[in-house]
């Protein structure tokens, strides 16, 4: 990270985002209880509907506040058309382009949608838009001001949201943390993590049963490797379960020393979760860079564990732009 003016401005922006986020996440949590959807793609919003013959087909899901998943999408690519979100149920010129593919170079003019034959992908909503702030997603031809197919976003859609858990229990080696958050079905955010680094054979592990034990599965650290854990001094980290597991088939996350069968501290995973599916919207490498770039002054928020998905998403889209 360079410490130029630009990054200082960036940091200030992140702090502002984080402040509004604290409120935002509390708000989300108020809506989070209730429905127990564990759909593999999120909450289904509907199918593209349009004039027959224009041939836009596909199903749209809400993954989280910021991401849509488009499944089995087909379009012939013959017009100068774009994905388009607006605040009207009937798509109109009042809207903005959603870049496809995700991660397209943001310094470039948006590219028109190519022909796509039955493909599935994530769409990250642009700028400050969220699923709550839009009413429709369309394939839109701005020149003809014409929709080739659109989906109305239902008013009362209950979008999966991250789940805030308690902190790690404090059993050994000065392990402590802020409240652990499940960002999506495979990703944990652990804020303000402390650990003295003195366990000779310590790992993050997950498994089944009422208490942690050594027969679980190792979880890679925030760098994505399975080395013995080193000391943490208040870092906020994100870790991701191996591909074969989700939060729905584990009972606990522990920091465990295999050699001495020693439990340093753990969190229990609740059974009634409705978190966003893990479709790659939280990329661990990008998350680590994001978290490293957070200013120390925002740590108070991390401590109360309200590093919100919106902050992360804003920062992620910045990163994507700069890639
Ligand atoms: C982004 O697009 C601009 C303009 O086409 C180009 O100059 C630049 O090299 C691209 N950057 C990346 C990372 O692809
Ligand atoms: C589209 O792909 C899905 C798999 O993602 C497959 O089940 C489906 O049959 C395909 N549809 C068509 C029309 O080829
Ligand atoms: C953090 O966890 C504690 C329980 O350990 C809980 O009482 C508190 O509400 C949590 N904080 C947030 C912000 O959810
Ligand atoms: C926990 O048990 C479930 C089935 O009950 C299984 O699918 C899952 O892989 C187990 N988790 C671990 C970490 O062993
Ligand atoms: C999941 O995969 C990891 C390796 O990626 C393996 O070590 C572990 O045994 C697997 N766990 C389960 C429960 O299948």
Automatic annotation (TrEMBL):
Transferase keyword on record: no
Keywords: Repeat, Signal
Residue intervals of the DM13 domain: 46-154, 166-270
Short name of any one Pfam family annotated for the protein: DM13
UniProt-listed PROSITE patterns: DM13 (PS51549)
InterPro entries given in the database record: DM13_domain, Spindle_Org/Thrombomodulin
Signal peptide: 1-36
Name of the protein this chain belongs to: DM13 domain-containing protein
Native source organism of the sequence: Cloeon dipterum
């Amino acid at each position: 990270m360079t410490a130029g003016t630009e990054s200082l401005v960036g940091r200030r922006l992140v702090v502002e985002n984080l402040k509004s986020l604290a409120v935002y996440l509390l708000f989300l949590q108020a809506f989070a209880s209730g429905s127990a959807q564990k759909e593999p793609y999120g909450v289904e919003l509907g199918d593209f509907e349009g004039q027959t013959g224009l041939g836009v087909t596909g199903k749209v899901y809400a993954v989280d506040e910021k991401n849509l998943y488009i499944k089995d999408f087909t379009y012939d690519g013959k017009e100068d058309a774009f994905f388009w979100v607006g605040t009207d149920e009937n798509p109109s010129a009042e809207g903005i382009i959603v870049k496809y593919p995700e991660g397209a170079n943001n310094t470039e003019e948006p590219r028109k949608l190519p022909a796509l034959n039955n493909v599935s992908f994530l769409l990250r909503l642009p700028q400050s838009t969220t699923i709550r702030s839009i009413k429709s997603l369309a394939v839109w031809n701005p020149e003809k001001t014409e929709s080739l197919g659109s989906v109305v976003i239902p008013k009362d859609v209950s979008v999966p949201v991250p789940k805030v858990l308690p902190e790690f229990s404090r059993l050994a080696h000065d392990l402590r943390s802020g409240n652990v958050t499940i960002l999506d079905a495979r990703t944990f955010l652990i804020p303000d993590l402390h650990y003295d680094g003195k366990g000779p054979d310590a790992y993050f592990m997950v498994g089944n049963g009422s208490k942690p034990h050594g027969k679980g599965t190792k979880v890679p650290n925030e760098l994505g490797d399975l080395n013995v854990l080193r000391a943490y001094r208040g870092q906020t980290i994100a870790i991701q379960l191996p591909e074969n597991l989700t939060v729905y088939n584990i009972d606990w996350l522990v920091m465990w020393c295999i050699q001495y069968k020693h439990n340093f501290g753990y969190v229990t995973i609740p059974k009634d979760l409705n978190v966003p599916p893990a479709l790659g919207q939280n990329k661990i490498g990008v998350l680590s860079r994001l978290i490293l770039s957070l200013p120390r002054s925002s740590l108070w928020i991390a401590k109360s564990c309200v590093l919100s998905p919106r902050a992360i998403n804003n920062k992620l889209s910045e990163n994507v732009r700069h890639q």
